[in-house]
Amino acid sequence: MRGPFDFEHADPWSSDVVDVESLNAQLSDAVLSRIEEVRRAAPLGPRELGSSTLLGLGPAGSGKTHLFVRVRRRLGPRAAFVLVRPEIGIEATPRHVLTQIVDSLQHPASGTTDRQLDVIAASMLAAVSGERVGPHVLIEQLRQRDERLREDLIERATAHLEALYPEVWTDYLERLLRAPFLPAPDRRAANAWLAGREMNDVQLSRLGGGASLTEADVLPALRTLAVVAAHGSPIVLVFDQLENLVTTEHQSSRIAAHGNLISELHDSVRGLVIVQLALDAEWDRNIRPKLAASHRSRVESKLFELSLPTPDQREELVRAWLGRLPEAERGEPFPWPFTPEQLQAWRRATVMTPRMLMIACREALQPSLAPAAARANEPAGGAEAPPSTSIEDRLSELWALHLARGRAELQDVASDGRGLDAERLASALMVAADLADLEPSTTTDRVTRIVTLQRPGRQLRIVQHAHPRSVAAALQHAAAAEDPARSVVVREHTLAFSPTWTKVDEYARELGARGVGWVWLAAEDATRLVALHDFLAAGRSQDLAGSDGRPLDFAVVERWVKQDLDWQSWPGVRSALFGLDREDASVEHEPVPPAPAPRPPTPKPPPGADSLRTPTLVVLRRLRVASVDRLLREVRHVDPGATATSVSHELAQAGSAVAWYGRRLCVFVEREP
Questions:
Q1: Is the dihedral of CA 262, 263, 264, 266 positive or negative?
Q2: Shared domain check, 317 and 461
Q3: Which residues lie closer than 8 Å to 30 by C-beta, 6 or more apart?
Q4: By three-state DSSP, how is residue 662 classified?
Q5: Residue 618 lies in a domain
Q6: Same-domain check for residues 463 and 576
Q7: Which of 22, 277, 373, 613 has the greatest count of CB atoms below 10 A from its CB?
């Protein structure tokens, strides 16, 4: 079980976060008020139901993510929450918002096991059936009912909503209401269709035919989804990290696109509660001046200034965290186990974010772990050991965290039977290209997302399409380019062309003959690229903090990436961005990637290999380098019973697999095969 001081990286989808509700309560209370207004207005019809926009601006560390968690926890299934962060270099569109909404609706509603999408459908059906039961109970009841009776209720709900809101799209509405009751494969297909993603023939056949959503379908889909949700679980659409609209190139167009998007959602879609969050300095200096007056009237219609905790709120946070300690670990009256002097120092500090305060409490509470192996390696002559966590070590830890999140994202995408969205991959490639000063920009040619690298004059065509007709069209557009030899087709290796796609194979071979390059992006390269995108986005938002909780300057983060991460050596980056020839890298002119080589027999583990399978070594191998305090905290996530003694023992048993720098910093050492 994680301790109360182990939540420095807040998970927006977690409910297990300590909160002081007076902190920035004006914004969270306004969100709660808007949600109740939507719930009351929805049954009254279009004249009463509208959308609202709220803007929260504050310094780094003012707890924007905690606001999201707070409102989710207080409302539970009474609202559906969506978190949208900018794709760097990509202009926001209604289709992107629709995709993000449906993806977020796959998360469970706070305090329940039911997906937010299921709660939305159940609330609408409950409004028609007249049954006074909660969404969870109604979902289970309907799953057990005869399909004919369930379909009758869905038809009644469709007729009721169409009569009240003539603008709803009944095809979308019916598929939305049926989604909770479909078997898993059909449900995945329904989610892809509802999200506006392109679908292949197998997915479409599961839905009884039809076609993927066109651009003309996107706004009707958004209007329908928002109106349905307004009847029981209104959608709270949170745009976070908006400072990432500000980059060195083409920022004016992206800021204008955001203003257009918010204005269109506000004016054309009923029942949304739109919340925008950004750093105040970036907004005032770089975003507000580039917004048209007509956009500002909507984007900034209700502005809230977020602040850091006051001295009293800091004390409340400490009390709340200590209240989460097990009863057996509570001793003397507050502020024990801290001293009154420590508490007063935290209260008097000029700047103190919740993260800084949490880390200060943790450092004061937990004694350092100094294993015997470390003491044996202590430098002779009483030389002082290096600090427990340098900035480089800290950035390595934060990079490992983002890499793990990237792997989880790729696994989720693979479980849905698809690849990364083209915009997601294009944005990640643009971030890498910008690091290399290749002057990237992005456009579309109606069917393909294109990243243009100005300096080498290369075009990366992101061909992530699911349907063979779309792939063929994308390849035809590449062939029709002014200089096909300067084009490179990029597609994930996991999306290899089916042998039945004969027309695609024909076009691909023709492109190869014209000198068009192919990059089949391996899963690990895709993981690294999305992790790099999010790591730098977090750095620009000042969400990356040093070991003391203070936000790291973006210049420090970017310099570490350029000097220490060695991102230029990633095969996918070398192939796509730097155009290495076939002999050196994975730029292939063959349309189908080669089959993976057979795995060699698994060798017998060497003597002492069991010591490398302990929780401590498994975690250290993932982190590569960590302070022992950090290692203990991470091990407790996978082994709640771990103690300082057990971790020290497992480190000592690992022998040469662990190297020590001073007494507090350990490094995993790969053994020679």
A1: positive
A2: no
A3: 54, 302, 304
A4: coil
A5: no
A6: yes
A7: 277
Contact between 27 and 306 (Cβ < 8 Å)? yes
Domain boundary residue among 275, 305, 335?
305
DSSP 77-130: GGSEEEEE-PPTT----HHHHHHHHHHHTTSBPTTSSSBHHHHHHHHHHHHHH-
144 or 558: which carries more pLDDT confidence?
A: 558
- How far is it, in rounded angstroms, from Cα 433 to Cα 454? 10
User: Is 5 part of a structural domain of the chain?
Assistant: no
Task: Give the separation between CA 34 and CA 57, rounded to whole angstroms.
Answer: 19
- Residue range(s) defining the domain that contains residue 323: 311-371
The mean pLDDT value of the chain amounts to 85
Handedness of CA 193, 113, 13, 366 (dihedral sign): negative
Residue burial 233-271, b: 16+ Cβ < 10 Å; e: rest: bbbbbbbbbbbbbbbeeebeebbbbbbbbbbbbbeebbb
19-46: per-residue pLDDT in tens? 888 999 999 999 999 999 999 999 999 9
For residue 43, report the phi and psi dihedrals to the nearest 5 degrees.
Answer: -70, -10
* Count of domains forming the chain: 3
Which residue type sits at 191? N
Same domain? For 435 and 571 the reply is: yes
- Structure confidence by residue, pLDDT tens digits, 91-112: 889 999 999 999 999 999 988 8
Q: Examine the domain organization and report whether 575 and 536 are in the same domain.
A: yes
The per-residue DSSP string of 575-602 comes to HHHH---TTTSSEESSSSPPPPPPPPPP
Determine how β-strand 303-305 pairs with β-strand 235-239: unpaired
What are the strands, taking DSSP E only, across 289-446?
A: 303-305, 440-444
Question: CB neighbours of 648 closer than 8 A, spacing ≥ 6?
Answer: 369, 371, 372, 373
User: Helices 502-513 & 468-479, crossing angle to 10 degrees?
Assistant: 20
The model's pTM is 0.81
